[in-house]
């Protein structure tokens, strides 16, 4: 074959390979997770569906065993679920969510609480909740809370950053980045076949990455978090923009860092060594589906742990599942509730007054 033609064919093959790799290849699981986390900050608008299901909750202590109310509460929480369906946008800052609470057991009950968040105000629709009587004329109205007024009443200054969801997203991104940075890619991250990930219908995913902690690596995972991750997280909280947002002072952060540094390492290591004796991880995994634009489109966390402390006689079993599904990322959003009108709202002062009158 003519040398010139051989070079041309080889060049075409290499070009096709690079093009296909750019379209379909998967990144290293850890790098893919970090990349998706970084891109989450670029999500200026989206719809979200979240759900938390408490499959099992058992807390046995000397105190709870003799407390019927505690047993009843755990019975209500078993199989309970919490849902959040909503819409978010950055500019102008507006989001609305409907919080669904479904309790099971002998005293089962379900109710929804719509809420709207703007740059300076929070609106929460007043539900009719069993065993918590609310004046009939207030049910269905929105309790409006002005962050600026609340801050003034408490003798402080209004901090707009406390309601800045974009900044909260950036904080979350930085925290997750330092979390992923120090965990070994081979031990904690792996790819899951998209077909085996049991993704809901409509979820776009080119790759699914799992972060996993087991009984075999839990001690090392805890050591990594305490000795490497947590100090870096404290440095992030110390940044002016985040410190103000969480309402902490420089003194608060410095004290927390000092307490962390002064912790008796020998005592800490003993506690971590003892961890394997009373902590059993049946499952602790987080699956993240990543779409073609490298946005996280779906997350599923399964937690199933048991703790049996021989010293305190405390035995805890917790099994729960959490899911987040994102859609319509960076598209124009439709707000079903909108910002409540003045005649649809009631202030905290009015609520307290009406509740007081009803009680008399």
What descriptive keywords fit this protein?
single chain; 360 residues; alpha+beta; 2 domains; twelve-stranded mixed beta sheet; 11 helices; 12 strands; 30% strand; globular; coiled coil; signal
Explain what you see.
It is a single chain. This protein has 360 residues and is α+β, with helices and mostly antiparallel strands. The chain folds into two domains: 44-157 and 330-360, no CATH class; 162-309, no CATH class. It has eleven helices and twelve strands. The chain has helices spanning 3-24, 29-40, 68-77, 147-153, 165-181, 185-188, 218-237, 240-245, 250-262, 265-278, 348-359, and strands at residues 45-60, 81-89, 94-103, 109-118, 121-125, 142-146, 189-192, 207-212, 279-290, 296-309, 314-327, 345-347. The chain has a twelve-stranded mixed beta sheet with strand order 7-8-9-10-11-1-2-3-4-5-6-12. Strand 4 (109-118) and strand 5 form a beta hairpin. Helix 5 (165-181) packs across helix 7 (218-237). The longest helix is centred in the N-terminal third of the chain and has 22 residues, at 3-24. The protein is globular and about 60 Å long. The termini are far apart. The relative contact order is 0.16. The model is unreliable at 1-5 and 7-24 (pLDDT under 50).
